Amino acid sequence: MILTQCAVCATDLGLTLGKKCGRCSTRYCGPECQKQHWEGGGHDKLCKLIKKAGGAEQYNANIKYTEAVVVAAEACAEDTKGQTCYICTQALHWKTKEGLVRMCSCRGTAGFAHVSCLAEQAKILVAEAEENNLDDKVLNERFGRWHTCSLCEQMYHSVVRCALGWACWKTYVGRPETDWARKFAMSLLGSGLSENNHHEDALSVQEAELSMRRRLGDSEDNILVVQGNLATTYQLLGRLEDSLRLRQKVYSGNLKFSGEENEETLVSALNYAVSLVNLERYQESRKVLCKMTPVARRFLGDCNDLTLRMQIMYATTLSLDEGATLDDLREAVTTLEELERTARRVFGSAYPTTKAIEHALEMSREALRAHEGDVNSLRDAVEAMTPPGSA
Q: Which UniProt keywords apply (predicted)?
């Protein structure tokens, strides 16, 4: 995680409190911990190295990035056998000797790359946009290369997303706190940690980011994005009521500021529906989805990942609701079977959305079988009670 705690006792310092080493900016809750770290914690030997690397935050980011790249390459090793990087054309990176990764929606021999090559490519594109004073739309598109594959145009996931989050953070952490790229890098790091199930670390990053953006007087739109990310982490940590409270606020805010036909609004609608499902408020969830799914299909198209995920969630609410009818369960299964065919064609079998559909379809079929079993049992019982020969 980023450095929001005392290096000795782990007291939470946020981003502004505490004391820093005058040379390398390692953070402490006070002079006693600083002295202890210097005299018995080994900081006297590391201080110059940390300063040389660019300070405590940069040093920490460099280490975490290196560790994350190793994890990502190992996780992709089976998939990348015999392949080469589409950027540098080598199997092993010439400098770092790291292996290849993929974890997007590319298939066949497409999309294999080194995390270092992806990061360098994104860094160059963003730098060119900044140097040429290109508009915000271009800047945002180019910054998207930190998390989205340029070939299949789908977001990286799992350990690759986490490694790219650290790559982005280590690239921009040295910039001023007010710098746009640094703020977005912090957001990307938080989502990458969450994507890789490091939820406590993600919580620390996201809470620090929200505090920073509020302190700097950031726009309401940006605050809503951070709150949405934080709500996801609350959900993954089991803090469901906290998650729902933020989800509702974010959805209402996006509707107010951006209207229905906006991707952030649609994302927040889906997330709000998910939070309602987690608290078994199925009818309320369906109400949100029935309102916003037609908007997603019209605005983004039937094959868009977000549109598919909204339909998955609608079918899931039907399967989970104890009050669902036999027709409801049949609708859920039919819907998910159609979605599975679409997802396999568009994204491939390994993509998270395809996997989510497979899981939801299995659950829906099981619910349908159980319900049909109940109906058949009832019919058998009725027939057994009917006298022979009666009409």
A: Metal-binding, Zinc, Zinc-finger
Q: Decide which of 201, 218, 235 is a domain's last residue.
A: 218
Residue 173 identity (one-letter amino acid): V
Identify whether residues 166 and 42 lie together within a single domain. Answer: no
Which has the closest alpha carbon to 157: 103, 91, 217, 221? 103
Structure tokens at 237: 């940590």
65 and 121 co-located in one domain: yes
Report the number of distinct structural domains present in the chain. 2
pLDDT in tens, 350-382: 899 999 999 999 999 999 988 887 656 545 554
Regarding whether 21 and 71 lie in a shared domain, the answer is no
CA nearest neighbour of 308 among 247, 236, 279, 316: 316
Tell me if 174 sits within 8 A of 54, measured CB to CB: yes
CA atoms in the 13 A half-sphere facing the CB of 348: 12
As a whole number of angstroms, the distance between CA 51 and CA 26 comes to 9
| Residue length of the chain | 391
User: Which range of residues forms the domain containing residue 183?
Assistant: 55-218
Same-domain status, 77 and 150: yes
**Same domain, residue pair 23 and 83:** no
Phi, psi of 113 (to 5 degrees): -160, 165
The residue-averaged pLDDT of 211-221 equals: 90
Task: Answer for the pair 332, 319: CB distance below 8 angstroms, yes or no.
Answer: yes
CB 47 within 8 A of CB 26: yes
